[in-house]
Amino acid sequence: MNNFNTKYPVNISKNNPNFDGDDFLNILESEQISAIIKNATSKWRERIFTPSITLAMFIKQALSPDRSCAHVVNEFIIDNIDELPINISTSTGSFCRSRQKIPLDLIKKLVRYTGNATKEKIDNRNGIKGNIYLVDGTTFTLPDTVQNQEKYPQQSAQKKGLGFPICRALGVFCLESGAAVNAQIAPYKGKGADEHTMLRSSLDTFKKGDLVIGDAIYSSYWLFSHLQKEGVEGIFGQNGGRAKKADFRTGKQIGKYDHIVTYKRPQRPEWMSVEQYKSTPKTISVRELKVRHKILVTTLCENKLHSKDAIDELYISRWNIGELTAA
Question: How do the domains of the chain map onto residue ranges?
């Protein structure tokens, strides 16, 4: 136990044997995670709904068939009636205020910590020196509050007051464990509100020897040049423009619809400084291959180590992201 006044258990599992509130609370009270929570919530003053209890209840709420605040508060009171004050209120106000005080940065840190702790226990069986990561983005709506509308405005096509705030999110997942190891959130539109920008903010996740897999939206010259510079591998769908121009009669032939080609550096994008642009190589070599009527582009150029079929199998694994984000 830590010093968060977490004497109240949060029993989640009466109707679902697959997870238990006490397990969540024990995890949140582990030495490393407790320190992360304490640093992020040093000014917390709530006596009953402490940071650890609030987070444990929030997890329960997200996983429960009944996701209402009233349900999670009522179950908390029932399970802890002997330890709680006699005059404890069933009002959801205190819990909701505590939940709103949870910093978004704390959630991000916990995602990264727990995700990395999970993946470190998984063996890589795909012939890659480092870890294998899947990247993907999505959008979702938020509660229609003034604060959310200001930070994450609704779509411009909707009349003001008739739409919900909308934001973008990008996740980085460990292939073997399915754990989320990094996440970014941004407005739906505006400066920095695109998946390329969010991915650039997550590039420190990848280390030498790792492999990154994603769809065609991420397949850019700038990403490939960065990955090659850092010794990180990548497999991506080929973007539409380059896919239409792909000519497998050119370049260094590896096999049927499989070759190594040279890309020339495009013009400098607005987000890149002149210094960054000059430090980017004028050309890069990548491998293009056609599988299942789709062109993939990758830095894995050694056919003896990574066959066409093996690369295709790795790319197909990215569809697991849909199952992970829907869970």
Answer: 21-102, 114-135+169-326
